[in-house]
Design a protein that fits this description.
alpha/beta; 28% strand; 10 strands; Rossmann fold
Length: 226
């Protein structure tokens, strides 16, 4: 569904990505793994249009979107959950969701995906736990009805039981069809288990790739020396 072809990108005169080729399979999941500073978040920012490329192309369903603005990419079906469990802390959980859609049936649908939010609707989002805020951030993005969900470190700093819940949600979304996931992760087991394809990134270059699944975990850890 999403393809990066020979992408080089960076900030000012500093290049961060170098000639990156990457394919995200349609109606499946792909993960990008690497140590801190490898260029993972930069790659996602290129994918969603927040950072222009120096050279190369970004394709969505075979269409060149390299010059397309971020809002147009959202309209084309990309949904982005950045790192950091972002929310509007003074607003309630419900108000955070209503910012995207005031339609109660839509809100009910995403709360069915994350039932832990159901009893938190009147609570200020700033008082939620890290795991609850992450679920809220993903739920809010799903309200935009994307065809592809792009996640940056969705398990960072959250408790193991919530990691398991997010893992199951991603599996359920991709298994129902017509939905694609791309995520950046350092939690190797989580990322590889849910992925049809994985990539490892080091110093802005793709250093490995292959089919996902339990059998790939040891190979990924070895390549990342973790």
């Amino acid at each position: 569904m999403l393809e990066l072809v020979g992408v080089t990108a960076g900030y000012g005169r500093s290049k961060v990505l170098f000639d990156v080729d990457l394919i995200v399979p349609k109606d499946g999941a792909a993960s990008i793994m690497g140590l801190n500073g490898a260029g993972k978040t930069t790659l996602l920012r290129v994918a969603v249009g927040l950072l222009p490329v120096i050279s190369g192309k970004v394709l969505l369903d075979g269409v060149d979107i390299t010059s397309m603005r971020p809002n147009r990419r959202v309209q084309q079906g990309l949904g982005y959950v950045p790192q950091g469990q972002l929310c509007f802390p003074q607003m309630t959980t419900l108000e955070n969701l209503q910012l995207v859609s005031p339609v109660q049936s839509d809100i009910d649908e995403v709360v069915d995906i994350f039932p832990a939010l159901r009893d938190l609707m009147s609570r200020p989002a700033g008082l939620l736990s890290g795991g609850q805020r992450q679920q809220l951030a993903i739920a809010r993005t799903l309200l935009g009805k994307p065809r592809m969900l792009i996640l940056d470190e969705p398990t960072e700093g959250i408790q193991p039981n919530v990691v398991a819940e997010i893992e199951q949600v991603i599996v359920d979304l991709t298994e129902r069809g017509d939905f694609t996931v791309l995520l950046v992760e350092q939690h190797v087991g989580f990322a590889v288990r849910i992925s049809d394809r994985y990539y490892t990134l080091e110093s802005g270059r793709i250093t490995g790739s292959g089919a996902g699944g339990e059998d790939a975990i040891d190979a990924v850890r070895a390549s990342m020396a973790v």
